[in-house]
Design goal:
Chain lengths: 310, 146
């Protein structure tokens, strides 16, 4: 089975463990293995606020360098923040000579960091950073999914929510059209589901403002959820741990303030994919969801013949 | 002229002089952000697309104009730079290709260099810190503190 170097990131090891589990299960269902890299640290979550803060680029560059030194030429990640940070760091190191030299000067002093610390050759952006969605689209191919689906999600209406940092800044990320993306929609369609389009699919959920200014973030989440609901969605589908948390956990407070608000289940694209590929609802970590996914699960067909074989 | 006198449209009058408009603040912004702040021609696309503009005291396009005019105090006192969620919507939509988020980031750094962190770990409630995925915790501290 094809093995792909995989960077889970902090959130997926703990608070978003259901994203990690469903990502690994989905990969196996599609015929490849996400092989976690041997040693890694936090990537820093966001790129530095200015070109002067080169120190903030050291951790992600060290991760990328260790991947290169392991012999891999690509690194797959699922968390949108990790993806944005690793990919933009890679871009900066590859295209900006001043940054490349400064970061490598720091890295040359790495000592006693075990698996990650051996100061090898300078890193200059050799590794290709891919989002899991990108790997499935470009390497596996969405066209190969329908043949592997054992639980077609026919008749289920799912609204893909893209958020911000997976697609933007588009000049560096180059993953999909930042204003009219189809990446998640196309994956959902391949599972048999109906992809619901709604106006707020690329609007920010507030990101880290849910820490510093939760009311502002909740107002954004409410607009997104209401818009998806108005367009007929049975559930909202995301890829980012922070989008998931904001949109999923804000709903209790929104409903408290407005009893007319109807909750909307929030799912990771990996959970949808994992279910379609035949894994059971019990392995999706739904107990971690604040908003009850039952309205979605009730529409889920059983997987004939497959359950018995597992 | 008192700075509190209302000018056209009720906006506060401002005094422009060469030292301010061509001053160190503008150069520092360009240096930190790598962006030509002077290229902004005030179309307002950033303000109309910003999902958080309703929460801001000064709209992003006006921040850009004030920055062009070297109005350091007004820009760095604005709540706008701490409401921006770094979603890149403005950056994607700017017809002049200015990375407006990079300018916001640079303004945050300028404000923090004056000794004012906006938000740090102490401001995070314990129950939230125990639940929210780490990118939120690390992200907010990296954006809003030194």
């Amino acid at each position: 089975m094809e093995k792909v170097a995989y960077y889970p990131g902090c959130a997926l090891k703990e608070r978003s463990a259901h994203l990690d589990r469903s990502a690994r299960d989905s990969a196996l269902g599609l015929g490849f293995e996400l092989r976690e890299i041997d040693a890694w640290t936090c990537c820093g979550a966001v790129p530095p606020v200015s070109r002067e803060r080169v120190m903030n680029l050291v951790a992600p560059t060290r991760i990328l360098r260790s991947v290169r030194d392991s012999g891999a030429d690509m690194l797959v990640t699922v968390c949108d923040f990790c993806y944005n940070t690793l990919k933009r760091t890679n871009h900066a190191v590859r295209t900006d000579e001043v940054i490349r030299r400064r970061v490598n000067a720091f890295l040359a002093e790495d000592r006693s960091l075990g698996d990650m610390g051996a100061a090898g050759a300078d890193y200059s952006g050799e590794v290709r950073v891919l989002h899991l969605l990108e790997y499935v689209r470009d390497v596996v191919g969405f066209a190969s999914i329908p043949a592997r689906v054992v639980r077609p999600l026919d008749g289920i209406r799912l609204a893909a929510y893209y958020g911000c940092v997976m697609l933007r800044p588009a000049k560096e990320i180059l993953l999909d059209d930042p204003e009219n993306p189809t990446l998640i929609d196309d994956l959902l369609t391949a599972t048999g589901a109906s992809a619901v389009r709604f106006p707020y699919r690329t609007e920010c959920c507030g990101s880290y403002l849910s820490v510093s200014n939760p009311e502002a973030s909740a107002r954004l989440c409410r607009r997104i959820l209401a818009s998806a609901r108005e367009n007929g969605a049975d559930a909202l589908v995301v890829s980012c741990p922070l989008c998931f948390y904001n949109l999923d956990s804000a709903q209790a407070a929104i409903r408290e303030a407005d009893p007319g608000f109807r909750p909307l289940p929030v799912l990771y694209f990996t959970q949808v994919l994992s279910l379609a590929l035949g894994n059971g609802p019990e392995s999706q970590g739904f107990e971690r969801h604040a908003t009850d996914p039952a309205p979605f699960l009730e529409k889920l067909p059983s997987a004939p013949g497959k359950e018995a074989s597992r | 002229m008192s700075p509190n006198d209302a000018g056209p449209g009720g906006n506060p009058r401002m005094r422009l002089d060469r030292e301010k408009v061509r001053g160190a603040f503008g150069l520092r912004l360009v240096e930190l952000s790598g962006q030509q702040v002077s290229a902004c021609y005030q179309c307002g696309n950033c303000s109309s697309g910003c999902p958080l503009s309703q929460e801001m005291d000064i709209l992003p396009s006006r921040i850009m104009r004030l920055a062009q005019l070297g109005q350091e105090d007004q820009v760095l006192r604005s709540g706008t730079i701490w409401i921006c969620a770094s979603c890149f919507q403005c950056t994607v939509r700017c017809p002049k290709g200015i990375d407006i988020l990079a300018v916001m980031d640079a303004l945050r750094q300028c404000a923090m260099e004056k000794g004012a962190d906006h938000f740090g770990p102490d401001g995070i409630p314990g129950d939230l810190a125990a639940r929210i995925p780490q990118p939120g915790l690390v992200g907010v501290c990296r954006k809003f503190s030194t």
